[in-house]
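Late entry, evening session. Most of the bench is empty. Finally got around to the prediction I had been postponing all week. Sequence below, unchanged from the version circulated by S.P.
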Amino acid sequence: MKIILSTQLKEWDKYTIANEPIASIDLMERAACELTRAITCRWDTSFQVVVFAGPGNNGGDALAVARLLSKQHYHVEVFLFNTKGELSEDCRTNLNRLKECGSIYFTEVSTKFDPPVLTEKHLVVDGLFGSGLNKPLNGGFAAVVKYINASKAQVVSIDVPSGLMCEDNTYNVRQNIIRADVTLSVQLPKLSFLFPENEDIVGEWELLDIKLREDFIDTAQTSYFITEEEDVRRLVKPRKRFAHKGALGHALIIAGSYGMAGASILSTRACLRSGVGLVTVHTPIHNHDLLQTTVPEAIVHTDIHERYFAEPTDTERYQAIAIGPGLGQEEDTALAMMEQIQGCTVPLVLDADAINILAAHRNWLSRLPKRSILTPHLKELERLIGKCMDTYERLNKTKELAAYLQSYIVVKGAWTAVVTPEGNCYFNPTGNPGMATGGSGDVLTGVLASLLAQGYAQEDACRLGVYVHGLAGDIAAREKGEIGLIAGDIVEALPQAWKKLSEAKGQFAKE
């Protein structure tokens, strides 16, 4: 799914109007019907509806929704804010249509606003400003927003919470933005919906299909995407009848230090559970027996040091390498890691302490092999790019780093983002808050190493890996709940996640 910019959304409307063809007022009515359907599915007629409409087309949508709700026997009160005496043409048309409905209490606000009483039994329909907003709200509109936010009413926003901009809110005034319980986004989500700082503003968001022309979006240029199940199904490689362990790749995982053996175990088990033929884990001497016992399917190769990684190992027989989970940051470890990386000729995943070591030795970044994969969580990412004011700035800096390194950066979290060297950003929809637990990232590292060793291209491995990792987390959460979820549960759910994707694709082809 593409995420296009707010300027392109406006062009999409125009394109549909010209090429369907359809009158703009009829397209607005179509949107209003979908919005009304979504509202009536969530709130019954026991709620008193108060509609706040602005002077533009978002306000026109709100006025049309008010009329349609009234026809379905909702008690509706409307406030149209027309402080400059300028309404859009479609807003004016819907105002005239609304006035024909005698059962609606209507107020047009041009100067003074006498706010209604809002209780927990009121539903506010926010139609003040939509996706075309390009500057923070102030003055009277900011006061209206603050009044709504301070009330106990539930709030549903049309397309975008008023005051929120679709992409860059770095310099926005957050207290002047509507805090919606539900946002009904027309056709596509907005980029800002995927940013954690906007969670309490957007609330739950639902996409409404108003049948805009698909050929426009097919050719629209964007660098932002949401990965969908159909995308990753196409990536999954079928297993051939005569496949054997030697044909399915051999991954090397360099992980674990004394007291952090668990990270190496989780990565290794996840790697094995993701289809690789063989896994060797290189770990300190103290971890040898523990790994042999807990992961008998793996080959264990011990370092010269008892407690941490201190000497690079030969990589000639491996098809992919992952370095970092539980590695530690000893100076010997840092030097060994860089020696290991500089001699690396196969696909490489860098996680956890491998990233922290690079952040502490920034001049080493330029020595990374191209097409490497880095998997930082937010704190680790900030150590590489510096602190950022918000997610939009962080995303742009991450894109700059990916381009500089010519590598892939997987920013872990809700809506995990895969940022490519070309500047594309793929947001992952799977996963849940139960995965916010120690070791989840180690599991992802193992999944990625497995896919790379099997011959998946780096971008495909990233997109497929984060999707199936999140899917496994969702499967585990359905069985155990989010609160009690641990990283080992994600590993155990990986076979079910792969089975789900494989069966959907018709895998296990008899070739």
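Two things to note before I forget:
The chain is about 40% helix and 15% strand.
The longest strand covers residues 48-53.
Will write this up properly tomorrow.
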